[in-house]
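User: I'm putting together a small comparison set for a docking exercise, and I want a reference complex before I start. The sequence is below, and the ligand is (2R)-2,3-dihydroxypropanoic acid. Could you produce the 3D structure with the ligand included, as structure tokens?
Assistant: Of course. I'll restate your input first, then give the structure tokens for the complex.
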Amino acid sequence: MKVFISGNIADSGLKLLAQNNIIVSNWKEARQITSSELIDACRDVDALVSVGPNKLDASFLQSCKHLKVIALHSVGFDNVDVEEARRLNIPIGNTPGVLSGATADTAFLLMLAVSRKAFYLHKKILNGQWQNYEPTPELGIELHGKTLGIFGMGKIGLEMAKRCIGAYQMKVIYHNRNRNEQAEAVLGAKYVSFDELIEKSDVISVHTALTPETKGKFDMAVFKKMKPRSIFINTARGGIHNEEDLITALQNKLIWGAGLDVTNPEPMSVDNPLLNMESVAVLPHIGSATQETRNAMADLVAKNIIAGLRGEKLPHQV
Ligand code: DGY
């Protein structure tokens, strides 16, 4: 059996595939593979590991209906036409759970960096602008006892909430499609309406999937309702915020700051005004990028492929 991997995954996953006599071919170029190149690469293989934002839409799936399984090297599956995959009987696997801690760490890192203007002040050193010690300019804000609003209280949101309670005794409110009993029982998190979430939070951290309902959810109307000293954090998908509106909201001080691990589009252009704002921190979609997590993701990807090629139920199927 053969699998095409549209990027590089950690060795542990490759080893598992080899132990199961699965022959691997890889996309080797630094640029993202195009849709037609992906279709070509899949012609002679039985399975695909999709690394990065490949669009696995109806047209791709119809061109590759011979695939026995597709394993995503991600928890998010917004780039897949899941309905069409079901219709064509192609199981789609993803990697939930193993990246929750690392992604929550990234959200926490951004929150703290924004609250202390850390990325902006670091750039000042690089630009030779470290001047005399001054007690008043460019001050940050503290997080202790503030209210954290989680938009999407799943596994990653729960991990972010734990970190914020442990470090700063923050109060946690959340908004979800469904109540999260674990978050309520273990963390004392309070379920609120979306309006209450945006009006009451000092920090809003987004941990929901990108869906037609969440696309562009954080727009000017929402930023206007947020507190003027609030921080917006997004480590989920760039499409959930309207980036033009976010820039305007920050320029007009409707909110205090923003931390983004995901942008719209990705990669972000180097002349994006967000990169020069004092209370903004941007990272290049590194949420799950630790050695431990990427090993665990590669293992799950391999297990999904092995199960799919055997005609078994995938350990993690979307
Ligand atoms: C995920 O797992 O969804 C990450 O954002 C990588 O795409």
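Residues 291-309 form the longest helix (19 residues). The mean pLDDT is 97.
User: Thanks, that's exactly what I needed.
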